[in-house]
Amino acid sequence: MKSTNVTRVMHLVDEHERWTRQGHRGGVLWLTGLPASGKKSMAYELESRLFAAGFEAYAFDSARIRLGLCSDLGFGREDRRENIRRAGELAGVMARSGLVVIAAFISPYERDRQAARAAAENFHEVYLDVPVEVCEARDDQGRYARARAGELANFTGVSAPYETPKAPELVLDAVTHSQSECVDQLVTYIERHFRSI
Amino acid sequence: MKSTNVTRVMHLVDEHERWTRQGHRGGVLWLTGLPASGKKSMAYELESRLFAAGFEAYAFDSARIRLGLCSDLGFGREDRRENIRRAGELAGVMARSGLVVIAAFISPYERDRQAARAAAENFHEVYLDVPVEVCEARDDQGRYARARAGELANFTGVSAPYETPKAPELVLDAVTHSQSECVDQLVTYIERHFRSI
Predict the structure, then answer these.
(1) Most-buried pick from A174, B10, B82, B150 (CB within 10 A)?
(2) Whole-structure pTM value
(3) Rounded to an integer, what distance in angstroms lies between the CA atom of residue B115 and that of residue A193?
């Protein structure tokens, strides 16, 4: 922490006022899983379903913030840590504005996910449980193949580790179940955990 | 840009759908001015007034993000640039979620403010025009005094420059007018520029 000459100002709008008006609390749904496990398309389908159900919801993914907030970061261990740290802080600020934030990030390290969790209240970790073989078979962009050929360095599942979440709030079996079925599960989960104020 | 193996997914919820439902478009109101010019308290009063007027609005300031998203940054030229870059990206993402984002930052460099502008659509720069003598007299935390005594380095207005905005959308005379009068002006401005979808 390098900031010492800073001062705090409190918000005049109470979180509960926001929640009451919009009919739900803010929070973070953090989707983690291997590359090509389906996090991103699931995130945006969920955003759409939640919007239709009357929620204030917004999804973002690693690709998107790597083009903006994290455009200075690469894929080495330290840059991955910083990428997830910033994403967690971004999600935290947005959740405090009242949004249901859906964040889709490989986020392969337990410690980094813990940091994201610490940056937000009402944080829910969702693990997309899809084995690497299935991800690789589903990968229509050929990233796994490029990683195996050595063209992509530090590729999670091939040349960089993925630490399975130790205590996620929810595990989705995205092998047996279709994306739509998984999204149904998530909508039900959000209705249960975000509607009570 | 270090990110090459990233892919985009489009949002399924169109911005106009969000705007139509909430009755206004998203965007950024960027408050710039010297330390103790009144940016922060003005930002939070504006947030409250906009919320009461039915807007989805959220304010944040430099102090707040320096405790989170930018906790690794100091006050040298390069860290200030990065601080404003990240703040601009944060504001941009939040604006795309439909919020009226109010960002209160000294942001003393024209080039940095231009970068923040580039990161968001519907961006409005608001300059709090208060001379340094008035700011210093109003500074109830004694930061100017500490800066003059050499206790605070790189303090804008004393030991670091403030570049007056070249083409802000709005200039507020916060010397002649009270904070509440300035906030009235801002609410009128937002009603005019954010209600039409």
Answers:
(1) A174
(2) 0.92
(3) 38
